[in-house]
Amino acid sequence: MLAPVQERTAKAWTRPALIDCDLHNELHGDVLALLPYLPARWREHVETFGVRPPAGGFYPRFMDHRADARPPSGRRAGSDVAFTRSQYLDPYHVAYGILIPLSPAGGQQNLELSAALATACNDWQVAEWLDREPRLRASMVIPFEAPDLAVAEIRRRASDNRFVQVQFSGRPQEPMGRRKYWPIYAACEEYGLKVMSHAFGSYGQPITGAGWPSFYLEEHVGPAQAMQANIISLVAEGVFDRFPALKIVSVENGFGWLPSLMWRVDGAWRLLHTEAPHLTRPPSEYIREHVYLTTQPMEEPDRPRFFLDLLDQFGDMTDHLLFASDYPHWDADHPDEAFPIHLPPQLQRKLYFDNAAALYGLRGRSEPAE
Amino acid sequence: MGGTAGQQAPAPASLASAPSGLIDCDIHNVVPSTQALFPYLSAHWREHITNTLFKGPVDSSYPRQAPTTVRPGSTPADGGPAGSDLGLLRNQVLDPLGIEAGILCCAYPIDSLHNPDAAVALARAVNDWQIAEWLDKEPRLRASVVVPSQIPQLAADEIDRVGDHPGFVQVFLPVRSHHPYGSRLYHPMWAAIARHDLIGGIHFGGAPGNPPTPSGWPSYYFEEYAGMAQVFQSQVVSLVVEGVFDQFPSVRVALLESGFTWLPPFMWRFDKEWRNLRRLAPWVKQAPSAYIREHIRLAIQPLDAPASPRHMSQVIEAFGSDDMLMFSTDYPHRHDADAERALLATLPAMLAQKIRRENARAFYRLSS
Question: Which CATH class is domain A19-360?
């Protein structure tokens, strides 16, 4: 899959430089990597009591990462900025990478611990990633289940514009549109931060509306269902009227489900809109303005032509599709092999670069390098 | 709203031109009140219901007066709930549409009852009520066995009790369940379904006690309504991955009031994940989409139709099978789109006819 570095450097690029909207900076040893960034009080707490997300729902997985992504240092795949740079950023013509750390911070039962871990994780991101690699931008880890503490962290980081978005897990304790989270959205709108929801993670709920599945294979289909529920909630609760500048980024949840979701929610709204009189427009219009989606895991229809049909159904929502690799996870998408069709040049520029550049305010141009 | 009850609703013009011999695979027969079940309940339960605050389960899947629950003119003159009157069903659906066979889907929320004895007693009563007051009175109708699905062995017992009655063709399974329906916990129930050669009719709704979304409880009914499609998706994943179709190869499953335009991209994603992770479920011998096309059919209402007919054509083509869709009115519920106009009239005649009649006739094994 990822070719050795030596082969890659000679390539003449026919596709634009890319903005990778799902790049994982992994914690070597999980929370252990954050201990140096925690104050003594919380360091001792973690050393004694560990981290405590709501338990009961562990699925033995296939494998975390690509076998070839383990750095020469022997540290965990994705934990070494130098190796991410040499294995991926440099050879794959990556203009910017948006970091998404998968830390235990957001889903802790102890909300103050959640806040402490979030601050520590963000400090780690600055020290070991952002300060070392200018192409990187980051997702701000926040204790989203404690909105007052989350807003404090947002204000603390607001002046560092390398943080481009805040991070929610795929299944917060309440649907994302609920008023509990509105103070977070207010702060994000104030500071121009996007609200990003990354697949997986939970506050104790199963990934279905019908109980706990048995197998990781089931869980791996599930983010599509989880994100759709969150989008429905954000629309229904009027979040996009209340915070008109807010943008939502759906990461690693797929995107093939979006057209049928919009048709269904519009149909429901046409009959049931008196239940939510605060909504002044059909749900699909809110979705078209406010929701962005990353491409990984890429849709793989039975026939390539169905992918073109899907893009046709997207219409100008193709302006909201953002390329993502999910490097270094086992199911990462290769930038040059992931799409089931050859994209026309204009669409290439949008999906690989321009859409993300516009969303995140990143400079640069999408012509191919020579 | 009830003032027009009893009058025959005029058939929509587009339906009047449809060929007769329509099969409707989602009609709601609604229990008018717990008292209506008294003739089918023992003295113990009649006393229990009369003397305690237990008035029967509360149906939250269909708010009684919501626009989606009640189509105009379907509320009976006696003030009972829409869908409780056989005469109105005949006048509004069976006769004007030329329904050859209608499949009743009784959504009485047995699954919401935590008391297992109450669940069993009421399930039996509802099924006996269905036989006496619907099947015996109207030969065009077939029905779905209601079961205490929350305790699969008790569900199997009820299926064994009435499943061979010729009027029962299906077991009603609310899509929201306490565990996904593929779980081994439910295999005794699937064994009974297979034993009696019934269809597992997975249907909109349910009151299992756990929330309808992966992030907990939403605020609005219209979120639950729209979001029910995702619960169907999760159930299909479970049925395939847990090997229900491998363990019980004869089992047929209908998705009712589920929507269908979500199915093709869902199959792509599911097939992809199976290719990646199939070693975790080695009994799943073929791609999920193959199981789905073989074992599962979907009712067409609600259509969840795109504004563009071209997009609907793309969806239909991406199904990769002409056998999967089945006409339904979902009476007395109301929908945004008319089936003839938004779907059937846009399709090649043979496919439209399969959807109107042939697919359900084959799937439900209805004689001509």
Answer: alpha beta
